[in-house]
Amino acid sequence: MSVENINLFTHFDNALKKVGEKPLLILDDGITHNYKTLINKSSQIASFFKSINILPGDRVSIQVDKSPESLFLYLACLQGGFTYHPLNPSYTANELDFFIGNAEPSIIICDEKNLPIFENLAKKNNIKYVFTLQSNGDGTLFDSLDASACNFQTFDTPPSHTAALLYSSGTTGTPKGIMLTHENLISNTKTLVKTWKFTEQDILMHALPIFHVHGLFVAIGCALSTGASMYWLNKFDPIKVVQNINQCSVLMGVPTFYTRLLATKKITRSNCRNVRVFISGSAPLLEETFHDFESMTGHKILERYGMTETNMNTSNPIDGSRKPGTVGPPLPGIEIKIVDDNDKRVDKDVIGNLLVRGPNVFKGYWKMPEKTAEDFTANGFFKTGDKAKIDADGYVSIVGRSKDMIITGGLNVYPKEIELIIDDIKGVKESAVIGIYHRDFGEAVIAVVICSETQNLNETDIIDHSKQHLAGYKIPKKIIFADALPRNSMSKVQKNILREHYKDLFNP
Questions:
Q1: Which of 224, 238, 360, 366 has the most CB atoms less than 10 A away?
Q2: pTM for this entry
């Protein structure tokens, strides 16, 4: 792969074509897919997109359930130089309206049950093509493919070409489109493969969703760039994981995976004997979970740290000490520094603002040059918004998030977005959304609501309204009615006081 042609698909293809007829995808029902299937299907999709004049750089917006076909679709976008724009299947029409309007895709792929929503959005935004794809592989997309179009010339990709557009909401409630290049993804994948010692002998238990970084770029990237196989579950099921983990050498998951595996009481040293590493990310792993899992399985979970804008930044080591409560040292080639509010580097074990610089860092926010400039320092460090510290051994600990983001079940939730929905309810004066400890989800979303004296709202009223506008994982687990919100001298709501007050709500 030349400097001029940096395409993630080419990076995968160079590894996969060496493995012959080996199964690359192993499905729960026993069906397998090999290299020939992956290449043929992705080439057919890429050829079809080209035939209807979808051009390199055009956005392809996708809201479908996880399936082998959804993987083929991702690979086709890489191969053709189309910008892959995945959407969480639980997003509502209200949320999708913004994403489609902002991303301006040339084509939409959706589940058939959501076709009316997307047809309306397509008409509203002058989008010519909407196709369907079901979890079983049926739909108008695959019905439209030419079975003979199995040869496609991979797009000659320049380094700065955008491979994917993923959205990460901001505290103002306005989502930000994050542009990740092929070069970003290749550099991070190569680093992770080397750090985690992936080889074609590995079998990865893939039970993550593929609409965000963890399942899409980290898990798939490590497997396909080495020719490793993936045991493919369309969704996480702790019983199925327990039943099949003995076939696998790696499991990547969010902390909720591990708490639910522990809850089965069936994850043991015996059925984990073939696993070489369990990896956790997307949310903080509790030290209690780390120790409980080690006690039950003999394995120390490897925790790492990343974000949508950067992919992975740090990792506990494969060989060496894995410190619970830390996310390990910086990955090779990635610079981490902790600074105070005046951009001065702080001492070891002092909490400050975490900055990162490296080839993994995204090229900017879609249509937001001012925000891009604001979030980078003059010397190219990205301001993550996370509070962290580094110990004497160089291990990083994430201690908080300056923007109050909540991570529930490994998914990011931004309080302002939920507050705007709740505050729009007649009779609500204001609200404050916070995350508090929850053994299963890591953090649970709760809303503290102040009502006007003339209204008689209950918890069901607010939750039902929220369900009409928000994805399920964003819905508060609990509504708490209060007379007032705590504020400081500048009238800013003191969410730290709320978090402390309600910290034992789910763990009395």
A1: 360
A2: 0.88
